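Exercise 7b. Backbone tokens:
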């Protein structure tokens, strides 16, 4: 039956083979050659391949039905429509982050009451029964009154709709006061902030005129935890050139501050980050070197009894080791943009993703679906959605369709548009593709070679509770 396979460069003589539904097996060269040539296989291996619908020996119709069921499960996220709805309530922000992908301002640019009301209408036109509403900026706490109004509108509408709604906010946490904390606690918000490591790295990446960004972030984390609980506050780090030199220090800072997870995120080619790309950028190989060192440190800490999870590894492993769809919209095919996410900008523009909004700030409106005054049906049949449908199915794209890791990955039309001007880039030279191929190979290498304690940690991550940064809120 259909299979894809890839040589594992970290494990000479070994390959990963995947079924049409994404179930994987590690094979040596002799076994793969026998499978490809249709030669007899040892019985234990043949049984394992048959169980994964990589071969069929007796009942072909049953095998096809099983394979279809597994594929339908992996793609089941398509049934509900967009579940993540992002409200960009302001562009105001007092930071000057060198890598910021948001075209922030130092004043003005707030979402009006009319725009907010129309965006809430679109939210409830979406068919998804489980919704995550995320507030972004700029700094959304600088427009807390707008956030409060939107939450009130949503609560009022949901008295009749009775949907499951979760509220999240991405914030520096520098503007948390008693009123804000009382509101966030009452509405059961989860918070996400940026913490780039120790003070020297964080303050260099996220400068303030007062030169105390790290101290204020840590103070905000402490205040939020005290009121909302430790599990309601998550953080992620953006990896800069400066970070590349100190992966262990970045991880250790998260442990020092009591975090149970860390999200290691590469630079983005959008917004202000794109303007400083020559000074700040690095290649995929440099990121992979950093990531492997950081992950090794994390695994060492877990072996010592200090539990900390690398969130992106958990997301990748969940795709590899479970049959379920990814809760992270960036790892979906069809692409999560539009199909899993809608973004309502402060000015009324509706975009398929965060990155689509950033792309528009750079002058390319290819992923602008329309305006909040237009109906959900109109937005979802827009030219932008048709572009995403055509360029966002990895199984149909050159360089992706025959990749063994296609089941666990997602295309990135916004990044391709930003870097090449077209929605489907050349995968062999794509930073997105090179980085993810390296990450998948690292995961399979760890699963194949490492000790029992490490493998137990990886399985716990894959099967454990979803992270706060699972963007579709599994």
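Sequence design result:
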């Amino acid at each position: 039956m259909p299979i894809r396979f890839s040589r594992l460069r970290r494990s000479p003589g070994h390959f990963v083979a995947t079924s049409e539904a994404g179930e994987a097996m590690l094979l040596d060269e002799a076994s793969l050659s026998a499978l490809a040539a249709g030669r007899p296989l040892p019985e234990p291996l043949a049984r394992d391949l048959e169980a994964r619908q990589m071969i069929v020996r007796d009942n072909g119709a049953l095998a096809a039905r099983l394979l279809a069921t597994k594929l339908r499960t992996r793609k089941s996220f398509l049934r509900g429509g967009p579940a993540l709805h992002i409200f960009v309530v302001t562009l105001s922000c007092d930071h000057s982050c060198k890598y910021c992908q948001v075209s922030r301002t130092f004043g003005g640019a707030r979402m009006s009451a009319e725009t907010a009301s129309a965006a809430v209408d679109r939210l409830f036109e979406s068919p998804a029964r489980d919704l995550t509403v995320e507030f972004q900026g700029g700094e959304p706490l600088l427009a807390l009154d707008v956030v409060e109004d939107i939450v009130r509108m949503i609560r009022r509408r949901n008295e009749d709709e009775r949907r499951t709604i979760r509220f999240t906010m991405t914030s520096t946490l520098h503007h948390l006061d008693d009123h804000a904390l009382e509101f966030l606690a009452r509405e059961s918000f989860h918070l996400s902030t940026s913490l780039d490591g120790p003070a020297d790295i964080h303050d260099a990446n996220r400068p303030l005129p007062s030169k105390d960004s790290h101290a204020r972030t840590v103070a905000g984390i402490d205040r939020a935890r005290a009121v909302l609980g430790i599990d309601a506050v998550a953080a992620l780090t953006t990896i800069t050139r400066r970070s590349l030199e100190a992966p262990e220090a970045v991880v250790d800072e998260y442990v020092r501050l009591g975090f149970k997870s860390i999200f290691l995120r590469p630079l983005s080619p959008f917004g202000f980050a794109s303007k400083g790309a020559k000074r700040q950028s690095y290649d995929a190989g440099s990121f992979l070197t950093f990531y492997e060192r950081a992950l090794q440190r994390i695994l060492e800490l877990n072996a010592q009894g200090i539990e900390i999870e690398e969130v992106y590894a958990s997301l990748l492993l969940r795709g590899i080791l479970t049959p379920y769809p990814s809760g992270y919209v960036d790892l979906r095919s069809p692409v999560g943009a539009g199909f899993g996410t809608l973004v309502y900008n402060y000015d009324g523009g509706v975009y398929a993703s965060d990155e689509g909004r950033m792309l528009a700030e750079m002058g390319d409106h290819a992923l602008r679906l329309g305006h909040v005054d237009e109906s959900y049906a109109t937005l979802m049949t827009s030219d932008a959605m048709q572009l995403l449908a055509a360029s966002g199915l990895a199984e149909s794209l050159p360089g992706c369709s025959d990749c063994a890791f296609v089941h666990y990955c997602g295309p990135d039309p916004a990044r391709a548009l930003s870097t090449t001007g077209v929605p489907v880039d050349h995968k062999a030279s794509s930073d997105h593709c090179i980085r993810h191929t390296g990450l998948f190979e690292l995961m399979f290498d760890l699963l194949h070679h490492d000790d029992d304690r490490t493998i137990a940690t990886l399985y716990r991550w894959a099967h454990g509770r979803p992270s706060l940064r699972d963007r579709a809120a599994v």
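Instructor comment: Residues 38 and 428 are 30 Å apart (CA to CA). The longest strand covers residues 130-136.
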